[in-house]
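step=predict obj=Protein tyrosine phosphatase n=251
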Amino acid sequence: MKRILNLDGAINLRELGGYTTTTGKKIKYHKLLRSGDISNLTPKTLDFLEDYGLKYVVDFRSMNEQQVWPDIKADFYHVYADPVYPLKGNGENLANILPTDSNSYLGKIYQSIVLDKHAQQSYAILFELLLDNTKPDKSVLFHCAAGKDRTGVGALLILKALQVDDETIVKDYLLTNLMYQDLDDLNDTLNDDEGDQAINKMNMTKADLNSITSVFDAIEHYYGSFDNYLNQALGVDSQQLQTLRNIYLEQ
């Protein structure tokens, strides 16, 4: 099965199936898709996604982004507006006092996202939909603009919850750089001149190792463990976590 889905009108669309967990299980195919902008999907691509089993689309972009580049609608999936931004600011405050001085530009933003109450509510909605996706070969697609930052954090949370090792999670995040050989060509599609300039800057910043590993540091520092984070920040308890693994992992 292909991990990178080069489909017309899609940006950075990738399959999360096939990754092996620390317990030796594999994530099922046709269940989890991560992506960037999907406002330009062609009829051929829509046919492919319908055959692929797409059922839910979770849009992490701001309301302004969603209005400027609305997701293509189709009768076989439902789009859920689930903006991560604007943050309430508490996550940024917490990230700024973490005991480290090595975090990159994106790393500080990612830490702010996982610690921010509003963003946590957005990812909690994602997990609610993941738990509702119980039918075989039905997929959840979650996306932002570039499919790197807000989506990258979402992918990390999902893969970590499914017990994929940190090294594999980092490699999946860094795959984005292969998808953007020339970021300047994507500027018109990803960035709104009248929109949030911080989001525009994020979209044009390459993925790097320190940025994604800083998320692990923030969660461990403030929550002690990832399971605590899922429970306390996203409302995913141990029983729901096991249900999630039953849905998305080959048994």
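step=describe
The mean pLDDT is 89.
step=end
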